[in-house]
Specification:
It is a single chain. The chain contains 5 helices and no strands. It is mainly α. The chain has a single domain, classed as 23S rRNA-intervening sequence (de novo design (two linked rop proteins), Up-down Bundle), CATH 1.20.1440.60. The chain is elongated, with a radius of gyration of 15 Å.
């Protein structure tokens, strides 16, 4: 692994971030700076924490800490998606696909986190 870009969790997270950002812009104007901003920030945090953790990979505990942050941001994003599904049913079909993607990503982040805890060596 030469770069964080080689991590499956990073590439999936970035793809989901771009889709989430685009979809959030379809929310009503009054939600763009409320729920829209929250989901954009949490989805960005998923990948940003992977990158920052990778940058600190020499320090196993720091790497783990940032992967935990990434997983927590993933859960936050899932929560925002649930709100959008219930508040804006016209977005439900598109946003449910995002939910499935973030659900899979959360499992992958968790698995990678366990791998780092048990097997990571500098």
């Amino acid at each position: 692994m030469k770069s964080y870009k080689d991590l499956d969790i990073y590439t999936i997270g970035m793809e989901l971030f771009y889709k989430t950002h685009s979809l959030s812009m379809q929310l009503p104007k009054y939600e763009l700076y409320e729920l829209g901003s929250q989901i954009r920030r949490s989805s960005d945090s998923v990948v940003t924490n992977i990158v920052e953790g990778y940058g600190r990979r020499r320090y196993k505990n720091d790497f783990i800490k940032f992967l935990v942050y990434s997983h927590a941001s993933n859960l936050e994003t899932l929560n925002h998606i649930e709100k959008i599904v219930n508040l804006y049913p016209y977005l439900a079909d598109d946003i449910k696909m995002l939910y499935e993607g973030y659900d899979v990503l959360g499992a992958k982040i968790f698995s990678f986190l366990k791998y780092v805890e048990e097997h990571w060596k500098i």
